[in-house]
Amino acid sequence: MSKFRILTLNFSLLLITGILVLAINWSASRMNGIIKENHLHATGQIKNAPPMVVFTTVALGSFRGILADILWLRAASLQDSGNYFEMVQLAYWITELQPRFSGATAYLAWNMAYNISVTCSQPEDRWRWIQEGIRLIRDKAIDYNPSDPLIYKELGWIFQHKVGNVLDDAHKYYKNHLAIDMENVIGAKPDWDRFAAAPKDEAAFKAIYTGNNPFWVALNAAGFASLDALYEEFTKNNGTISELLLKEMSAVKSVVDIEHYLRRQWLYKKFRLESDLIKRINQQYGQLDWRLPEAQSIYWATKGLEMTIGNRDLSCERMITQALKDAFVSGRLLWLDRNNYENIILAPNFNVIDSVADTFEKAYQENNKQSSFRSAKINFFKEAITLLYNYGMFSKAEDYYKKLKREEPGAHRMRLDEFVMKEWAEDVRSASVKQATDIIAGFIFRACNYIVLGDDDAALAQERMARYIYNNYSQYNADIKQRVGLASYAQIKKSVTDACLQNYPPAMAAILRERLAQEAAARGEKSAEPAARSGLPFSNPLLPAPAR
Length: 548
Prior knowledge:
Number of strands: 2
Strand content: under 5%
Helix content: over 70%
Radius of gyration: 30 Å
């Protein structure tokens, strides 16, 4: 080989080596960035970690990644074959092998709550997988990544979107189960001041109620060796305190609020919800119904902001805004289906309306007053006005109508009631006969619900809307009435009331039947049926006429 060829070969090898070194250096820098971004590097001992996690992070070292990859492949293979029995355990193992990898845990939880759940035909099986996804983040990942907003956002999203939305056919089943589970723990009308005032844990309880407190005498006399034993019986009996303990406490004149202490422990151990934070959220945004998923979504987004460095994260802030809007529209629980979990009655939660308006205004101001944010704010005002008016809150509706006028000067010169009716009329006029009938029947149905629940003002407002829409649609289509005309209002109303009487649970049907009979008697009729046929509104003579 000539000297020139040798020099050329050596130069080529050096050039190739240099290129490889640069490529390796670039690749290493990129890998270090990925490792840092996803917290895959060793960062010392993890707080609150169980012994298994401590062992894997220290003993296995770099081999953790290889083992995690094998488990990922196993999980993917099982899912492709439709075999999900090992998925929960694999998800927990992967989380424990890479506890700092928030993205992996978020995906695993989302996969169980969304992808795997929808492969199940039975709602109870779907709900089981959704709960597994929630538990993976709430009970595991948050302990390993307490300052990562991604974890909190993903948890809040499952509550807001998967459980709270209506996209899943079994969404009513999910909402019922969550509400029933929460109600067992906190009660139907929890007193959050008393929850927050209760001792945080057993150590705090013993610090307040020392050994010479009469409560301990009553506890021993009732046969409980410790607070743990009392807690176990309390949760086992669905939140019922031992009658013997109450009797013994009365005998020794103990004034310990033991129920709220036990409920506070139960709330944290089962749902990881802190009573102090719930109280602060209620104070900030208005009283939320904590049996519903929107409240828990707001909780985890708020928790994420508090734990995040700098207390700012756009995804958590947006989640609070979205969940507050959802809570306003349907954030008040009126009725649960404890037997079949097939129906649930929700209504707007007007406690949070001002907070929702504030969040829209804040977003508008912080985003350079972009037109899209202004449009969102205006659309919210229109929806709020309509809902407030529909539910008989006429004064509040007037306040928001004034806000809308300030946002759009000169654009709204009609009266409040005319504006509300116009909003509905725009939707109804273009509707088919079936669509218009469904809208009218929906208002009458809600009127029946409010009658049963004792809210006469809301019931009256609902039927006033039904009658207005009926008249408006009939007048608008008067020239083609023979072809597309609606059935008479009395007929539509009778069909709805009959359906309610047939499909309501017995207790609700009895209340509605009695109320209809009372109104029929007040009009000198013999039964509730003529009242339905008459087309008269569900009205109470003692109620004032709605304001215009």
